[in-house]
Amino acid sequence: MAQDENFPGTGAAATPAPQREEINLRTSLDRHVNSAGAAISWLALAAMAISVWEVIMRYVFDSPTSWVHETVVFLIACIFALGGPVALARDKHIRIRVIYDAVSPAVRRVFDVINSVVTLLFTIGISYAAYVMFWRASHNPAGNWQLERSGTSWNPPFPALTKAVILIAVALMMLQAFLHVIHAVRGSTAPGKKEGAQ
Question: Please, which residues have CB within 8 angstroms of residue 52's CB and are 6 or more apart in sequence?
């Protein structure tokens, strides 16, 4: 069998490894969020590590913990919440591009403006809802600062902290969306598309 010079030890018909997809970031804020995404991803490893610790403590030393389950749930919730700004920065939210890819660059710009404005309005709405949710989780009925707690034997303030992370995430997405509106109105080429590309 003939050797492929690009892939030693394989046949000529071997399929080359897929190239890493290029990430197009529109703004400076998107670049910072994308960089932070790499750090946020380590929370998954932390959640896995303490889950392993719980298994060892429970089944090897017969000494189960009272804090692992709630901590893992909190870490995973943070990953999901902060994944929103990262996906928005990378322009990786789910969408259907059949019409977008079929029209001219000029029409794409119009679509970009409309999409960015709708996204901004949506993030304004969910930011307000997240603020109300966090306020209720961080203040008692008298209006004094009092973090909502889980109510378990450990009783951490994770419910309030989770809502704080959600508020930060959606407020960040609102700021990103605002900058994306400016980017689209200025007529910059949509991410991943070169001017005149078919």
Answer: none
DSSP codes, the chain: -PPBTTBTTS-TTPPPPPPPPPPP--SHHHHHHHHHHHHHTHHHHHHHHHHHHHHHHHHTSS---SSHHHHHHHHHHHHHHHHHHHHHHHT-S----HHHHHS-HHHHHHHHHHHHHHHHHHHHHHHHHHHHHHHHHHB-TTS-B------SSS--SHHHHHHHHHHHHHHHHHHHHHHHHHHHHTTPPPTT--TT--
Does residue 134 carry a pLDDT above 60? yes
Model confidence, pTM:
0.79
- Contact call for residues 61 and 117 (beta carbons, < 8 A): no
pLDDT per residue as tens digits for the range 146-176: 999 998 989 999 999 999 999 999 999 999 9
Q: Hey, where are the domains in the chain?
A: 28-93+101-185
C-alpha span between 131 and 129 (Å, rounded): 5
Q: In the prediction, which pLDDT does 76 show? A: 95
Give the torsion through C-alpha atoms of 52, 54, 56, 59, to 10 deg: -130
Each residue's pLDDT tens digit, 45-54: 999 999 999 9
